[in-house]
Amino acid sequence: MKIGDNKKEKSGETPFKLPPPNSKNTPEKLLYPIAETLEKNGIKMLPDRTLVQAGAYLKIDPKIREKENKKAKNYFGNVNLGAVKTVSKFVGVVCRDHEYVDGDRVRIYLNGNIVAQNLFLTAGFQGVNVDLKEGINTLVFEALNQGASGPNTAQVDVYDEKGNLVHQNIWNLSTGAKATMVLVRE
Questions:
Q1: For the chain, what is the mean pLDDT?
Q2: Is 123 a domain residue?
Q3: Is residue 156, in this structure, part of any structural domain at all?
């Protein structure tokens, strides 16, 4: 039917031609029937009993962590992070994992006292404010572990009471090793 044609269609007819229900294009008579295509290409719709669990052929050494720890202790011992002079009554000490975020944890001491028992290092900075006594203050970071991929890696930033960055450093430590920084309050 053309646009603008005033002829009326016969009842039951539509401008679209649909194939009759028993046409040769029904699913049973397709050029590539579904059942044959699945079988020919080896596609199975049910689970196969020959499938194996992922990693079934992987050989795991149960002592791999011990070997890594022994190797790491040879290379990543204690570290001196330097000394900083300040007139601030306190400083903000923040750390983050500067490589892979793999579960590294540290303990922070100030003058032999624990100020952060178990600080979990993430990609974002987190830390503590520590009050400084007059003279020499020793800040120690102890690596509690090496995370999933050793060594314990961290970036540490120290800010004075005005928010100015006064020191920045990184470390690579084995489990139990320490990074030491001296803060001198004038």
A1: 78
A2: yes
A3: yes
